[in-house]
Amino acid sequence: MVVKVYGPAFACPKRVLICLVEKEIEFETVPVDIIKGEHKDPEYLKLQPFGVVPVIQDGDYTLYESRAIIRYYAEKYKSQGTDLLGKTIEERGTVEQWLEVEAQNYHPPIYNLVLHVLFSDKMGFPADAKVIEESEKNLGKVLDIYEERLSKSKYLAGDFFSLADLSHIPFTNYLGAMGKMYLIKEREHVSAWWDDISSRPSWKKVLELYPAPILE
Amino acid sequence: MVVKVYGPAFACPKRVLICLVEKEIEFETVPVDIIKGEHKDPEYLKLQPFGVVPVIQDGDYTLYESRAIIRYYAEKYKSQGTDLLGKTIEERGTVEQWLEVEAQNYHPPIYNLVLHVLFSDKMGFPADAKVIEESEKNLGKVLDIYEERLSKSKYLAGDFFSLADLSHIPFTNYLGAMGKMYLIKEREHVSAWWDDISSRPSWKKVLELYPAPILE
C-alpha cells in the first residue's frame, strides 16, 4: 500500500514528503491547485473539512495536519530510516517542545511573510506592508532565541536531527525567493543549522520532485 | 519528585494541570503574574525564553509548551490514570490530528476573543471590535466542522476522551465569562461534547484550585 499525499507543491505537505523520504516510505502524490481554489472543492472537503493541504490516505486510514502526519509516520516506522523522535521519552518531549515552538512562534510570522510577499498577487489580495514589517520583526525575535539555543545544541531538540528541525524546512526555504535569507545568514548558529538541515538529501529530493508554485 | 508547574492561574498551564490530574501525577504550582509582567523577568526567561506560560520542572527535566508537556506525561505514564492517547498508533495519529486542529484552527480565534474581550483592560491595550467580530465568525466556522465531526463520534478523536478534547477545555470555559457560550450551546453535538468534557472531575478540581484571574 502506497501512501497518497495531497498538495505536494505547497509547503505544509512538503513537511510530510521530507518525513516520508527520511523514513524510506513509498508514496505517490495528488496535485491540489490552491491558486485555482481546488482545496475548497466539495470532494476535497470530504477528505479535509477545513480546506487546507495536506491530507494523506494510507489504505483506509486518512489523516490531515502536517505535524500530526509526520508524528504518525515517525512513530509507526520508528526503527526504519532516520529516527526523528529521539531515543528516550525525555528526548521525544524536547522534540515535541520544539515542534510546538515551530507551530506557535515560528510559523505565524513566516507564514504571513510568505503570504504577503510571495502569494498575495497570485491569490488576488493586496499585500499589507504593515503585516510584512511586523512579521519580519517577530520572526527576527524568534530567531534570536533560536541563535541562543543553537549555540548550545547542534539541532533544536539536541544532538540529533528530528521532526522539530524538519518542520522548519519548507517555509524557511521561501526566505530565499523573498530576498530575506539574511534573517538566517546574519545569525551564526542559525545559519550553520540551516546549511545543515537544508542540505539533507531528503529535502533536495522533495524540492527537485515538487518545485514550489512560486518558482514555476 | 513532584512536578512543578508555572503559571497555574492561566489557561495554557491549565491544560497541563488537567492532564496531571487525569494521569494521577503529583504536582505543585508556582504563580506567575502575567498582568504584572512576571513572565518577562530574566529569571523566568531562563526557564522559558519566549516569556510565556507554562513551563514545568520535573527533577532535572524542564519542558515548555503546554501541548508538548501533555504529550510527554500522557506517554510517560501511558498505563496510569486515564489513557489520553488511544489504544493503537492509528488512534494516536487521530488524537494528534485533532490536537493540531485545536492549536491551528480553534485556538487562534478563541485566544483573540479572550484577549480582547476579557484581558485588554487589565493588560492596558484597547479592545479591537473588528478583531472580536472576525474571531467570533472564524470560531463559529470551526465549530460548524466540529458539529459535523461530533455528530458521528462522541469525542474528537473517536469514542474515547483524549488529549485532543482536553486541550480545548481551558479556553472554551472563558466563553461563559464572555457571555458567548451560545457558540457552543447552539450546536447540538458540540454542546453535548462540552457538557461531557467540562464535567470531568479533573477540570472541576483544577478550576476550584486555580480560579482564572478574570474571575478573582
TrEMBL record, chains A, B:
Gene3D superfamilies (UniProt xref): 1.20.1050.10, Glutaredoxin
Primary location group: cytoplasm
Compartments where found: Cytoplasm, Cytosol
InterPro entries linked: Glutathione-S-Trfase_C-like (IPR010987), Glutathione-S-Trfase_C_sf (IPR036282), Glutathione_S-Trfase (IPR040079), Glutathione_S-Trfase_N (IPR004045), GST_C (IPR004046), GST_Phi_C (IPR034347), Thioredoxin-like_sf (IPR036249)
Catalytic activity: RX + glutathione = an S-substituted glutathione + a halide anion + H(+)
A biological process term (GO) from this entry: toxin catabolic process
UniProt domain GST N-terminal: residue ranges: 1-81
Keywords: Cytoplasm, Detoxification, Transferase
EC number, as in UniProt: 2.5.1.18
Protein family: Belongs to the GST superfamily. Phi family.
This protein's name: glutathione transferase
Phylogenetic placement of the source organism: Eukaryota, Viridiplantae, Streptophyta, Embryophyta, Tracheophyta
